[in-house]
Design a protein that fits this description.
Length: 175
């Protein structure tokens, strides 16, 4: 019994450490290693995460980490589609970063989901730095960035949750 209690307390302690780490990311930029991550466009050209973020300066950004094989990711995109309609014409960017390894599967997945937004595929060598920095343990995973590209919520609510809309609305009100 002591062994089980010790294990449970260890899990609780580690979960609290992770939550505190993520809370400390609020208002911070991404690490240089993450900003230097290689992303690929649909036509196969490469860029860095920093350059991609720079193109969206002045916009609130919802970053959606997903993959074409992830059923939950695709299901959640229906709620993202509703958010896109609601925020159309406002300074909100929906950025989809795919963790797909295979380029062709990613392209087929994009055709299937047919989502508006900014689409990139993460280079395989860049994934560990991103996953470690954000403590990503699974997808879908969402990050909300403010108009300056700083992390507002490193583990944002999912699109079906009202809390995400509330956060976006709050960020839109800030000057």
């Amino acid at each position: 019994m002591k062994y089980i209690v010790t294990i449970l307390l260890s899990f609780y302690f580690l979960a609290n450490l992770q939550a505190q780490y993520l809370k400390n990311l609020q208002g911070q930029p991404f690490s240089d290693e993450v900003l230097g991550s290689t992303l690929y466009t649909t036509d196969g050209k490469s860029s860095t995460f920093a350059k991609v973020l720079d193109t969206q300066k002045g916009n609130i950004i919802l970053v959606d980490f997903w993959a074409s094989w992830c059923g939950t990711c695709i299901k959640e995109m229906e709620f993202t589609r509703k958010l896109q309609k609601e925020y159309k014409g406002k300074k909100v960017t929906f950025m989809f970063l795919s963790t797909d390894v295979d380029y062709k599967k990613w392209i087929r997945g994009l055709a299937t989901i047919n989502m508006e937004g900014v689409h990139y595929r993460i280079d395989e060598a860049s994934k560990p730095a991103i996953k470690e920095f954000l403590k990503i343990r699974g997808i879908p995973y969402y990050v909300l960035l403010d108009k300056e590209g700083q992390i507002y919520d490193p583990k944002a609510p999912w699109p079906h949750q009202e809390k995400l809309k509330n956060s976006i609305d709050l960020l839109l009100e800030l000057k």
